[in-house]
Amino acid sequence: MLEEVFRGEWGRVLASLVGFLGDFDQAEEAAQEAFAIAARRWPESGVPDNPGAWLVTTARNRAIDRLRRERTLAEKIHLLPVPEVTMDEFDDTVIKDERLELIFTCCHPALALEGQVALTLRAVGGLETAEIARAFLVSEETMKRRLTRAKAKIKLAGIPFAVPGAHLLPDRLDAVLAVIYLIYNEGYRGRIDLGAEAIRLGRLLAGLMPAEPEAYGLLALMMIHHARRRARFSGEDLVLLEDQDRSLWDKGQIAEGRAVLDRALELGGRGAYVVQAAIASLQAGERIDWPRVAAMYRRLVELTGSPVVELNRAVALAQAGDPATALRAVDRLDLDGYLYFHSTRGELLRRLGRDAEARAAYHRALELATSTPERRFLARRLEQL
After folding, report:
1. Nearest to 141 by CA among 128, 131, 129
2. Most exposed residue of 61, 89, 163, 185, measured as fewest CB within 10 angstroms of its CB?
């Protein structure tokens, strides 16, 4: 029960404390102390009716006690004064939800991207440092340093704990969405289930910004993709979309993702995440309308200018029955260091009967592959030529 409350309340409790204390480290210490007290008391007294309010109140009181002790000590030994924090009139039945401020603070563009990701997972998601380190395949000490640098930057640069003004919000929201999507993509590659964590963060963001269609678009995109996760691999083998066992797809999550997409469209959403979610929805259909998918990828190219999106459009063109046009589109792209450029090119050449060129493309893709499923898939393609 405590674990469940922790996952559900950590971000809310920490956000309230950061806003109150103005310091990440002090806020984390107070939050951890409050959860430790709960772990001792709740098994005997039961979980309070409003556990979040109980935790915030307990943590605030502990933080104030600590600051008063530090101030007393500083005055006794003539040190620099400790900033004083006083307890205002506090209604412990209504806790202001400051998680949106916390999200924008963690994803501030002044922080390095790796720091934004780590701090978002730690502060908003409540993941332990060791869990984040395992997810990103780095040592716990390395992840601690990333978190320390991010928190120090917030303090030294005076990054405000606030939702940015209207003139800054579009760019800053893009940064927040990008961080959550990056977290999802790390999970989608099969590591610790960061995919589910990203969806949880996406739900939180959409709930806190109910008028932002791109927040709903990102959430829908992640949900529809995540619904197919069990079918993407067979043992250590990668399974392409057309070969996936659809009985393994989570139909309920696909339906929920489509409902979220409908909400984004109702809000007038036409941005990149909404378009990607619409593509994912089409690809989850009983019969995929590939010409329509290709047309939507064209729209996404117009929005993003991304050569990777252009590569995906070429795949859709090939699936629609025109591999020659797809190959011409691929050959215009400058993506030599990108694994999927070469694997896509190899597939198109194979379909066109140009086996020698296809083998060369697959060999180049194999040189760039880093995961076992990718390497096994490419090796299998080479064996088939």
Report:
1. 129
2. 89
Spatial neighbors of 264 by CB under 8 A, at least 6 apart, are: 213, 214, 216, 217, 220, 273, 274, 277
Contact between residue 345 and residue 335 where contact means Cβ atoms under 8 Å apart: no
φ/ψ of 97, rounded to 5, equals -90, 105
Angle made by CA atoms 219, 221, 224, in degrees to the nearest 5: 105
The letter for the amino acid at 99 is R
Confidence at 189, pLDDT banded by 50, 70, 90: low
The residues pairing with 278 across neighbouring beta strands, listed in sequence order, are none
Query: What does the pLDDT average to over 156-181?
Result: 90
Cβ atoms of residues 277 and 220 within 8 Å: yes
Q: What are phi and psi of 270, to 5 degrees?
A: -140, 15
215/235 Cα distance (integer angstroms): 34
Cβ atoms of 14 and 27 closer than 8 Å: yes
pLDDT-derived band at 305 (thresholds 50, 70, 90) equals very high
| Mean pLDDT for the stretch of residues 179-195 | 77
- Contact criterion met (CB below 8 Å) for 8 and 50: no
Rounded CA separation 44/57 (Å): 19
Return d(Cα 189, Cα 192) in angstroms, integer.
Answer: 9
Which range, of 40-44, 65-69, 112-116, 144-148, averages the lowest pLDDT?
Answer: 65-69
Give the per-residue pLDDT at 76: 58
Task: Give residue for tokens 């307890």.
Answer: 87
- Residue 48: what pLDDT? 85
b/e 349-378 (16+ beta carbons within 10 angstroms → b): bbeeeeeebbbebbebbbebbeeebbeebb
Q: Tell me the three state secondary structure of residue 172.
A: helix
- pLDDT class for 87, splitting at 50, 70, 90? very low
| CA–CA distance, 99 with 44 (Å, rounded to integer) | 30
Check pLDDT > 90 for residue 3: no
